[in-house]
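Example with several molecule types.
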Amino acid sequence: EDQVTQSPEALRLQEGESSSLNCSYTVSGLRGLFWYRQDPGKGPEFLFTLYSAGEEKEKERLKATLTKKESFLHITAPKPEDSATYLCAVCEASGTYKYIFGTGTRLKVLA
Amino acid sequence: ETGVTQSPTHLIKTRGQQVTLRCSSQSGHNTVSWYQQALGQGPQFIFQYYREEENGRGNFPPRFSGLQFPNYSSELNVNALELDDSALYLCASSLGDRVEQFFGPGTRLTVL
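Resulting structure tokens for the full complex:
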């Protein structure tokens, strides 16, 4: 069964304490893997798309990487404003479009 | 550039009723997808429309249906509402066959 699993479910960091979030996926074929940030009660905010193993993308304190079975979102020197739920999703390469999201990692950065 | 907009923001219905939610795509985007997000869960893919045709569907029953209009706006219709349909309904748009999607703020549906 196609699925996306994120870990940890929740993470508390001190300001400046770097860490990584994990997203493992099982799909028959990958059109793309996405990272989103979601604040409470709001729609997800697009961060990155990764298409193939070995690809990396960066944006401010965030860096996303991709292997054949998982993706990591590295957060360097986080600030309290980075507190949010981070969602990972894949678009599988079947005949039609189908998107699968993980349940997210709830990140809390303490000042 | 106009982002994805959704209406209404909040909605309360009773079990058995029908509901229509609306979405306007980001400027220039011709593909729209709908998602259901229960509290504490990730979004669940309902379906996607491209040029007014459904081109992808998740594991939702037929009482969840949709439309896309020539201006690329979209509607999600849910018939025979059940208590478990209470959730945040998200619309996302994208351009053509590009897979990255951009989300609207969502509609919070409560079924009593």
